[in-house]
Amino acid sequence: MGLAKRDLGLIAVTDLASMRIDLNLRDAVEEAINGGATMVVLNEPTLSHDALMKEAVRLKILCGMYDIPFIMMRHVDIADAVDADGVVVASEEFDPQRIYTEIGFDRTIGVLVSKPAEAVAAMEGGAGFLMCGPVSVGHDMEHTDCVSVDELEEVCASVDIPVVAYGGLADADINFLRGKGISGIGAATGIFGQDDIQEAARSLKKIAKEIL
């Protein structure tokens, strides 16, 4: 499955830990979609396998209702079981022969990268898109796992497949990514950690459309 440009505009990456306690994940994701999210990635590393499977089923159905892609983070078996549109894996876990054998060539593989060498290896291995981050615009570089804007630009320049910038990106941060070569924005806390999820997604989508 190839992803169209419209699919990568604003990717809602689930984040239960930051959500209001009065919301369930399915309803929170629907708010994000109504605000303009163009793709959903289920990323809940603290949930049990069974709980993840149940959430994946709910979100796959929901995304189907809105005709947007549903992507599973890391759990290739769950992606296959619920007929997800694809899966995202870490660069060190990227084994295209194994993954495509399991999920089929009609689905897409995204790869999490932070360096040009990882990006090139993923592209040459058949990845459909890359997620680069977590991106810092300079105010939180004490976190050693952050990717700077300059590093993000280097990753984008090294490949000719779509690159999505992701991390704790807020409205003001996205403007720093203008002209860096990205094809989309992936937001977790920036959407799900806000009091008004729909409005947060709408605001991020508006800014993303201006810079992509």
Q: Would you mind describing this structure in some detail?
A:
The chain is an alpha/beta fold and 212 residues long. It has one domain: Aldolase class I (TIM Barrel, Alpha-Beta Barrel), CATH 3.20.20.70. Helix content is 41%, strand content 19%. The protein contains 9 helices and 10 strands. Helix 1 (25-35) crosses helix 9. The chain is globular. The model has no long low-confidence stretch (mean pLDDT 92).
Give the SSE layout.
Blueprint (H helix, E strand, L loop, with lengths): L9 E4 L11 H11 L3 E4 L6 H18 L3 E4 L2 H6 L4 E5 L5 H8 L4 E6 L2 H10 L3 E4 L2 E2 L10 E2 H10 L4 E5 L3 H4 L9 E4 L1 H4 L4 H15 L1
Parallel strand pairs: 1-2, 1-10, 2-3, 3-4, 4-5, 5-6, 6-9, 7-8, 9-10
Helix pairs in contact: 1-2, 1-9, 5-6
